[in-house]
Design brief:
28 helices; Isoleucyl-tRNA Synthetase, domain 2; RNA-binding; 6-stranded mixed beta sheet; 852 residues; 7-stranded mixed beta sheet; Rossmann fold; alpha+beta
RNA sequence: GCCGGCGUGGUGAAAUUGGUAGACACGCCAGACUCAAAAUCUGGUGGGGGCAACUCUGUAUCGGUUCAAGUCCGAUCGCCGGUACCA
């Protein structure tokens, strides 16, 4: 019985053995180096395209379903371009320096190099299992010394340009990662990577002067083809503001205080001043009576982390220094306070406080009973200020300037101050310089030597790469120094300049360093003389399309742009920006369940009842299905390996593209992939049918051309979901044919090939053609055949659809009206009514407006 | 709080940019094939009413512009992302 049953099952079962097909073609591409790309000067610039993915950090967790989303998108696009006659550079590599490997080393003693290599191998196997058309000969790994030699080289260029400086300043320190962090790496007061609470700590740091490029980083955003939201995020991060620096003399004549304000027009309303607690003037100006109070305040402020400072933001605190300053516009004496709501790192670290027109100052003034003076009014009259009025308006209470609108007043008063030598126009940025050192082992050593005589000396270029020494202990020293500091034979060196005693810099670079320029190394990965040759840079740059997650909106994209601009200024690259077009793929989320009280329930603890209700097994309580990020705790993580094993790489690729638009986040549903699997099986079965040289039915020819048009346009604009839908429509229509006309089938296989490359290769071969399908010419369509000659004309009465008519395309408005009026249904409905007007939209609809 | 983005069937989503709302797919229902099931194929499927032809209603909510609104404008609510004393 079982035998017979098995046999009959076999007969009807689909023969689509994706595992075998996919293995076969991956081997073929690999062995034939199908996607190896070389620079051919005969190919004109406009037919070259650089399509780049954000390279992954090779984590031990392996590939996440989010990775293949972007990779598939660029893969389809690259293959599409190749078939359209483009030279496409499409590389892949690994951002392989990073903390997780080092933390793993601390735990297990495994050298991070070893675990990293293992992870890379695993990643690569997973990436290759999806059949992407990368030119693997161009692979780069940032931890490879032939790569980081050039990271160090570029760092030295920055150093030479005066863009790297050493400073001992309070920095963000992650007690868990035991390292300093850049401002961008702190999220809500927590470490971006491990989420521990960030502390303030004084450490000697290398810092890159990214602020020197703030204006260009801002201005050049205009030249980029990026989504507006990412541009806005970068603009906000750079945070440019215009205002004035204004000088207030101290009342006792002992000096002056410079403040930055964006509202110089409110100077007449300044009733006090505030210095940041760390401001150097504080010590000088504090009177003896206030000394103790000021010292106490400084101590508490200093012990607070930035997070605590903001957490306690609801209640303003501060102490009077005892000193007074003179307001330059009216010579009034104003008290000088200190408060931690003023940050030393922004502007001049000091403000003039205008409580009438600034919320923070208002709050402070209320608490400490400082006078509030209105100097701006919406309509020029006085009101009692119940809260700060921060909008623009008309000046009042401002002496000779009364009546001036805010904007004009700003200019006038700035000029006035300038003439009196009391102020100057000024621009400020929220962007801070980039803290570039990490007290860690697994990163690029900073190639500098501290010499007793010569100071800081760069390691000569011919001695690069400065490689990482072997260590036995990976844990940071705990004193804030990197593990490298414990290796005397490495640290103690000769000064490259004077030959005297020198000590190597023991900080390493942050992970972002390697990713700041990797797109350039792909151009010329084996070059031992330069990071990339000028010819190759000219050949390919800029990156035409860059696809990756939005989580890098500020960090990576800002840093890489900064480095690129430095290289540009040195004449080493040919474009002011590295990434011309940027697309952020949406996150792939997953389903989870939520109890009425808002707590989340893992997916394996919930049953589905009647296909719509969800019941928590343990309690029988009904829960709601929600969309959540994939997480181990919710047990809703999808492993790409499982998907490839169960459905195949082609199905995985196509499903991820079919889920919805590339840019939006969307939930993974394993049910959804069945539809794609069925589609691919149907395509496979179609390929089993015999091919004929007969002419195809006219209707099907039209459908084919329509399909080519839709797939061509949608693939070109990265609208993969609708392109797939059109291919589904096509297969649905040809499914019932006994034999397939070659002229119908072959173009379809070509259309499918960027999406499901393995299956398409197989089908192409079955048609009797030679591989590779990826090297074929993209099918063309005829505009004329791509549109239906018969259209459905919608006839509306007062905007409501009343009937639909089949008419031929291209009728004039008059003809349309005539057709519409002839329709019996319409005749009936307009009987005895007055026609007000008729709107005819060619090839679409006729709307008859009637009355009565 | 501020700055972005988004709210369309039971579900993922389409909609030529102001012109047939729900393409395509999942799920569900029915039918064909089968002893039966699976697979496959065919048809149906926003909601309400009607035997039917039809009809009313429907794109978060309310209002507006228009012959015509998912699309434009105004207000409100909700979700997501960014940011947070930046003077």
């Amino acid at each position: 019985m079982t035998c017979v049953r098995l046999f009959s099952n076999m007969l009807f079962m689909s023969d689509y053995n994706f595992t075998e097909i996919e293995k076969k073609w991956q081997k073929y591409w690999d062995e034939n180096k199908t996607f190896k790309i070389t620079e051919d000067p005969k190919v004109p610039k406009e037919k070259r395209c650089y399509v780049l993915d954000m390279f992954p950090y090779p984590s031990s967790a392996g590939l996440h379903v989010g990775h293949p989303e972007g990779y598939t998108a660029t893969d389809i696009y690259s293959r599409f371009l190749m078939m359209n006659g483009y030279k496409v550079l499409h590389p892949m590599g690994y951002d392989s320096f990073g903390l997780p490997a080092e933390n793993y080393a601390i735990k297990t003693g495994t050298h991070p190099g070893i675990s990293t290599e293992e992870n890379i191998e695993k990643f690569e196997k997973q990436i290759k299992s999806l059949g992407f058309c990368y030119d693997w000969d161009r692979k780069v790994c940032t931890h490879n010394e032939h790569y980081y030699k050039w990271t160090q080289w570029i760092f030295l260029k920055l150093f030479e340009q005066g863009l790297a400086y050493e400073a001992e300043t309070p920095i963000n320190f992650c007690p868990s990662c035991k390292t300093g962090l850049a401002n961008e790496e702190v999220k809500d007061g927590n470490c971006e990577r491990c989420h521990s609470k960030v502390e303030r700590k004084n450490l000697r740091q290398w810092i890159l002067k990214i602020t020197a490029y703030a204006d260009r980083l801002l201005a050049d955003l205009e030249t980029l083809d990026w989504s507006e939201s990412i541009k806005i995020m970068q603009r906000n991060w750079i945070g440019r503001s215009e205002g004035a620096n204004v000088t207030f003399d101290l009342a006792d004549g002992s000096g002056e205080i410079e403040v930055y304000t964006t509202r110089p027009d409110t100077l007449f309303g300044a009733t006090y001043m505030v210095l940041a607690p760390e401001h150097p003037l504080v010590e000088k100006i504090t009177t003896s009576e206030q000394k103790q109070a000021i010292e106490d305040y400084k101590t508490t402020a200093n012990s607070k982390s930035d997070l605590e400072r903001t957490e306690l933001a609801k209640d303003k605190t501060g102490v009077f220094t005892g000193a007074y300053a003179i307001n330059p516009v009216n010579n009034k004496k104003v008290p000088v306070w200190i408060s931690d709501y003023i940050l030393m790192s922004y502007g001049t670290g000091a403000i003039m406080a205008v409580p009438g027109h600034d919320e923070r100052d208002f709050e402070f003034a209320k608490k400490f009973d400082i006078p509030i003076i209105q100097v701006v009014s919406r309509d020029g009259t006085f009101h009692e200020l119940k809260e700060a009025f921060t909008e623009d308006g008309v000046a009042v209470n401002s002496g000779e300037f009364d009546g001036l609108p805010t904007k004009e007043f700003k200019e006038k008063i700035t000029d006035w101050l300038d003439k009196k030598g009391k102020g100057k126009k000024a621009v400020n940025y929220k962007l801070r310089d980039w803290i570039f050192s990490r007290q860690r082992y697994w990163g690029e050593p900073i190639p500098l030597v501290h010499c007793e005589k010569c100071g800081i000396v760069a390691v000569p270029y011919d001695q690069l790469p400065l490689t990482l020494p072997e260590v036995k202990v990976f844990a940071p020293s705990g004193t804030g120094e990197s593990p490298l500091a414990t290796i005397d034979e490495w640290v103690n060196t000769k000064c490259p300049k004077c030959g005297g005693k020198g000590k190597r810099e023991t900080n390493t670079m942050p992970q972002w360093a390697g990713s700041c320029w990797y797109y350039l190394r792909y151009l010329d990965p084996d070059n031992g003389k330069e990071f990339a040759s000028k010819e190759k840079i000219d050949y390919w740059m800029p990156v035409n399309l860059y696809v990756g997650g939005a989580e890098h909106a500020v960090l990576h994209l800002l840093y890489a742009r900064f480095w690129h601009k430095v290289l540009y200024d040195l004449g080493l690259v040919n474009t002011i920006e590295p990434f011309q077009r940027l697309i952020n793929q949406g996150m792939i989320t997953s389903f989870a369940y939520q109890r009425k009280n808002g707590s989340l329930v893992p997916v394996d603890e919930v049953d589905e009842a009647d296909g719509e209700k969800y019941i928590e097994k343990a309690t029988g309580e009904q829960v709601e299905r929600i969309i959540a990020k994939m997480s181990k705790s919710l047990k809703n993580v999808i492993n790409p390996d499982d998907v490839v094993r169960d459905f195949g790489a082609d199905a995985m690729r196509m499903y991820e593209m079919f889920m919805g638009p590339l840019e939006v986040s969307k939930p993974w549903s394993t049910n959804g992939i069945f539809g794609i699997k069925r589609f691919l099986e149907r395509v496979y079965r179609l390929g089993e049918k015999s091919l004929s040289d007969e002419k195809a039915d006219d209707k099907l020819v039209r459908l084919l051309h329509k399909t080519i048009k839709k797939v061509t346009e949608d693939t070109g604009s990265l609208a993969f979901n609708t392109a797939i839908a059109q291919m589904m429509i096509f297969t649905g229509e040809i499914n019932s044919l006994e034999t397939l006309p070659k002229t119908l089938w072959e173009p379809f296989v070509l259309l499918l090939s960027p999406y499901a490359p393995h299956l398409a290769e197989e089908l192409w071969e079955k048609c009797g053609n030679k591989a590779s399908v990826a090297m074929q010419k993209w099918p063309e369509f005829s505009e004329e055949l791509a549109i239906d000659d018969v259209i459905t004309l919608v006839v509306q009465i007062n905007g409501k659809v009343r009937t639909k008519l089949e008419t031929s395309r291209g009728l004039s408005k008059e003809q349309l009206e005539e057709e519409a009026m002839k329709a019996p249904r319409i005749q009936e409905l307009i009987e005895g009514k007055a026609i007000v007007k008729i709107i005819a939209v060619p090839d679409r609809l006729v709307n008859i407006v009637i009355k009565g």
